[in-house]
């Protein structure tokens, strides 16, 4: 995709820019703000290991389940209204989480949050495609950077705020961003309604060539648009396209690395290198921080320079070398190097999100593709942290679990090469089966 004919980012779509960025920030701050203050919560009411384990498993499970529910809801309600509903769920859940008085309430409030986040995860790439077809690279850069920023900021401020104002305020304060994200989308909906009423009262004047003028033309998507079958039929078609499974494995690999790392990396560092908990926590933060520069660079490199395959190889092989370093030289002085190398897997996340936007022709197919890819990816992410723990218990060490993590990275390389094909899922279907 090129940027020829692109108009200024803010021209006629400032509300969409603000809406996407505030929603992106809320998707991660809602997740990352809980774990740092668990000790503060436990001082008010007991939190068993089972409850903490359930809360740790909720994100990928909710993301997968509500990812599958999002396409039919979007088809019925529209992508903007469903985004508003997702943000309302996030904001309400955050406030409720700050008011709970026992562990069951904490789990239920957290599930409400993750339901909203699960829908928002699916909707963001199609929203970028719908409103910024001429600026996908730039908007995906801003969107993924906002997500990366909101991943490591909450852990930095959550504890100081909890110490100063209590854990309830520390948890609930992030609802401000979700509420703020609702406002631009309501403005977009009001603008669309006014445009629709104006168009209804005054029929559009045909332009040369017989194409009616429309304010919505600025938000059109690339590629031919035709009357399409039902979402269920299209979703079933996606499962028959190798490119879709390649994208799912690409996203799934990124999710596996992230959830395995946040679940086990500090423990691994302590066990294999003998570092203290503070150092292990710093290394986990370093791993997460690598995602920030990736979010700044990857979307532009993919959209403008079509560098999908080199970037995937760089992330997967770099991550595998980091794992190999932890296996062969787990000494304290080199842990930062192995962590940085392993952290290169962080570039797979923005890479996968960009591909969801550019590997589909229309907003509708982007919603379905996003749902399929992210649901499969998060289901894998829900399984692997448990699997790694079971392997550790069975082998009484971290060698086999680390080998499995490295093997996942290497095994995903063919999928990354297929995902690098400059074709849409509609192209793939039409080549194999005829008209989409």
Automatic annotation (TrEMBL):
Topological relation to the membrane, as annotated: Multi-pass membrane protein
Cellular localisation: Cell membrane
Family annotation (Pfam families): MFS_1
Transmembrane regions listed in the UniProt entry: 50-69, 81-100, 106-124, 136-157, 169-189, 241-262, 282-303, 310-329, 335-356, 368-392, 398-419
UniProt cross-references to InterPro entries, sorted A to Z: MFS, MFS_Cyanate_Porter, MFS_dom, MFS_trans_sf
All residue ranges annotated as the Major facilitator superfamily (MFS) profile domain in the record: 12-423
Main subcellular location of this protein, as a coarse class: membrane
Keyword Membrane part of the UniProt annotation: yes
Keyword field contains Transmembrane helix: yes
Region of interest (Disordered), ranges: 197-217
UniProt KW keywords: Membrane, Transmembrane, Transmembrane helix
Protein name stated in the entry: MFS transporter
Organism: Microbacterium suwonense
């Amino acid at each position: 995709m090129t940027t020829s004919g692109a108009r200024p980012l803010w021209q006629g779509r400032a509300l969409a820019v603000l809406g996407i960025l505030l929603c992106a920030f809320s998707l991660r701050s809602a997740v990352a703000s809980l774990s740092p203050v668990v000790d503060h919560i436990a001082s008010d009411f007991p939190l068993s290991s089972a409850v903490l384990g359930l809360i740790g498993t909720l994100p990928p499970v909710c993301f997968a389940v509500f990812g599958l529910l999002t396409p039919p809801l979007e088809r019925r309600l529209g992508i903007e209204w469903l985004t508003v509903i997702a943000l309302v769920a996030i904001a309400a859940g955050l406030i409720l989480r700050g008011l709970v008085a026992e562990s069951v309430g904490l789990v239920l409030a957290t599930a409400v949050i993750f339901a909203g986040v699960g829908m928002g995860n699916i909707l963001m790439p199609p929203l970028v495609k719908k409103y910024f077809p001429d600026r996908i690279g730039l908007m995906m850069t801003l969107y993924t950077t906002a997500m990366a920023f909101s991943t490591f900021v909450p852990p930095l401020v959550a504890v100081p705020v909890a110490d100063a104002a209590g854990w309830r305020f520390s948890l609930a304060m992030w609802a401000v961003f979700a509420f703020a994200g609702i406002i631009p989308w309501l403005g977009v909906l009001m603008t669309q309604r006014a445009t629709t009423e104006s168009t209804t009262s005054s029929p559009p004047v045909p332009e040369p060539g017989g194409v009616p003028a429309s304010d919505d033309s600025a938000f059109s998507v690339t590629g031919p648009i035709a009357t399409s079958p039902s979402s269920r039929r299209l979703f079933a078609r996606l499962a028959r396209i190798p490119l879709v499974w390649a994208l799912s494995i690409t996203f799934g690999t990124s999710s596996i690395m992230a959830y395995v790392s946040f679940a086990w990396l500090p423990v691994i560092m302590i066990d294999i290198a003998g570092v203290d908990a503070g150092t292990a926590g710093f290394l986990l933060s370093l791993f997460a921080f690598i995602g920030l520069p990736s979010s700044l660079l990857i979307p532009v490199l993919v959209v403008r320079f079509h560098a999908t395959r080199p970037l995937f190889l760089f992330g997967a092989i770099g991550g595998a070398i980091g794992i190999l370093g932890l296996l062969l030289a787990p000494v304290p002085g080199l842990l930062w190097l192995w962590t940085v190398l392993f952290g290169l897997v962080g570039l797979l996340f923005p890479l996968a999100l960009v591909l969801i936007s550019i590997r589909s022709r229309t907003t509708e197919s982007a919603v379905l593709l996003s749902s399929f890819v992210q649901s499969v990816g998060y289901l894998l992410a829900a399984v692997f942290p448990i699997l790694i723990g079971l392997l550790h218990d069975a082998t009484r060490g971290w060698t086999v679990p680390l080998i499995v993590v490295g093997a996942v990275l290497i095994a995903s390389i063919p999928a990354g090469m297929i995902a690098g094909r400059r074709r849409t899922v509609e192209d793939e279907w039409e080549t194999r089966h005829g008209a989409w």
